[in-house]
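Take a record.
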Amino acid sequence: MILPRVDRREFLWRFGGGLGGIALAQLLGEQGLLGETPAPRADLNGGLHHRARAKRVVQLFMSGAASQCDTFDYKPELIRKHGEKFDPGGAVELFQSSAENCMKSPWDWQQFGQCGKWVSGLVPNLATSVDEMAFIHAMIAKSNVHGPATFMQNSGFVFPGFPHMGAWISYGLGSLNRILPTFIVLPDVRGFAPNGPANWAAGFLPAAHQGTMIRVGKPNPIYDLFPPESAAFISRKTEPQTLAVLEKLNREHLATRGDDSRLQARIASYELAARLQTSAPEVLDLNGETDATKKLYGLDDQTTAEFGTRCLVARRLLERGVRFVQVWSGADNGFPRRNWDSHEDLRKDHADMGRSMDRGAAALIKDLKGRGLLEDTIILWTTEFGRMPCSQGGKGRDHNPFGFTNWLAGGGIKGGVSYGATDEWSYKAVDKPAYCYDVHATILHLLGIDHEKLTYRHNGIDRRLTDVHGEVITDLLA
């Protein structure tokens, strides 16, 4: 029998273009032999350019602009001048109002921890963990509009089309597991923040690095993961055969389309979805958690249960090797308020948001620490900008991009420290001003990445998460 001759191109496609080729590419990528981004190195503890202190990140995003002067930025002078005309000198730029009187926080302040950090009564549970947290008090945003400012905190740019930090980390470090996505987003159940899913897009990076949305608490938490109940012709016995045929057709289609990352990502998502049919229900099933753990996260209280559940799911994702998890507190700008955008009645609206967020966020710190995961997991708490120290309409606060607070914990962060400062009113950053670029550079540094070296060529430009900015905030490093 004479076997037909196969040329080199046909040979490489037959034996390298199927699932075996995918496995081969994965192995080559893990060993840094594909010639794209450098692979994480075992001798650098999983870092790319230097030794990593952290392996994973969880970002808690306060959508709508949480007020720094009602949470973590204590200003005795603002309290003293309560009711007096706000006059910091010069014109005051506001979003939708004019400068009124100074307005102290409706909540009392108290010192906590060995560091003696002043914290508002709005967040009493987080106050008990201040010795684990590093506060950045002189954050500045480049926009006082929710959409652009939210883009900036996520991607470093005020425009759409740029990759989220989680997508950059997925691109640079890859996955820690083979059964769950590298970057997962847990949105507020009440709806999306301004920009919607564009907030966690991959931008110009390969589409496989975009965030995977899981709607915790919904009957169908991952869209189209399982066939609809109405599709009676699909059974557990026939579905694997169907998937196998689809995989063959997909590969044949891809072979005729060249190097199309969108198509590759879609095929990869189908393959991951098949694995998710087993892994996702297990991650989202909290029945195995102890009553003490559920109570810690506030699952016993209707006010705290929703955000607490997502924080608990975030912990389960992190411990199973998900590289980046984003948890949202706050939805759109509708009425009644369901985010932190407290223009009308700060006492009421911030109280609702603070009570719902505080217990779950504090539990995440404590739970990760108790399980030995905090030492290599970074927690980032952020918001798109802050709020003004003067009142709006007597009871609310307008947008303030000139000075607000972020905090970090875990993963090589020095706890119990405060970096930078706003002025006496908590209005403008006056000492060690910082932008998202500096926060992003610091997080990448702790993951073993030099933020100036993690680049992607796009439209003739070597793009990076920090654009042409960013300095590692060394004062925050343990």
Confidence is low (pLDDT under 50) at residues 15-35. The CA atoms of residues 378 and 410 lie 5 Å apart.
